[in-house]
Design goal:
By secondary structure, this protein is an alpha+beta fold. It has helices at about 5-20, 30-60, 125-130, 155-160, and strands at about 65-70, 80-85, 105, 110, 120, 140-145, 150-155, 165. It is elongated.
């Protein structure tokens, strides 16, 4: 239910309770002052609750963004200033084992001519060696021409950049 509706019901019920307890008589200035004071108190409490909820929503919507502001003045030799409260990335210890999924068979690597990539991993060879090509990044996928027509391959530098390695045998 909305806060305004609840506040209105509360104010009306307080007013009815105060009026019904007293026998019918003309309202004096004192009674009117009490009624206005009660309504003002309820309004103030409602506003305080609304403000606290609005503050909670604002805190959740603010995201931590890292901004770099370069200083283009040539005479200043200060290092760049980054404003960020996040912790720095952690170095992975050397004793941590690589996942088996990240190792590709070296026998599937082929050299190609033309284009900006020299070595690729053939997708058909990966499938024959029980490596799922669905887990490989789509950004590394490319089409190459073979003697049997066009087929799919994955650029080796791109795969290495994303953490994939080759077997040593």
């Amino acid at each position: 239910m909305s806060r305004k509706f609840i506040a209105a019901v509360l104010a009306i019920s307080t007013t009815i309770a105060a009026v019904s307890a007293v026998p019918a008589r003309a309202a004096s200035e004192e009674d009117i002052a009490k009624l206005l004071a009660g309504a003002a108190t309820i309004f103030i409490i409602g506003k305080a609750i609304q403000n606290s909820r609005d503050d909670d929503r604002k805190d959740k919507s603010v995201k931590d963004v890292r901004h770099y502001t370069p200083d283009h003045r040539p005479h200043v030799s200060n290092p760049p200033v980054y404003s960020n409260d996040r912790p720095f990335p952690k170095v992975v210890p050397r004793d941590v084992k690589k996942r088996y999924d990240d190792v590709l068979p070296a026998s599937c690597v082929r050299q190609i001519e033309g284009g900006h990539v020299r070595r690729v991993v053939m997708s058909r060879c990966l499938e024959r060696n029980n490596v799922s090509t669905r887990s490989l990044p789509k950004a590394c996928r490319m089409t190459v021409e073979t003697r049997r027509g066009e087929t799919t391959a994955y650029a080796l530098p791109c795969l290495r950049h994303r953490g994939y390695t080759l077997t040593r045998y």
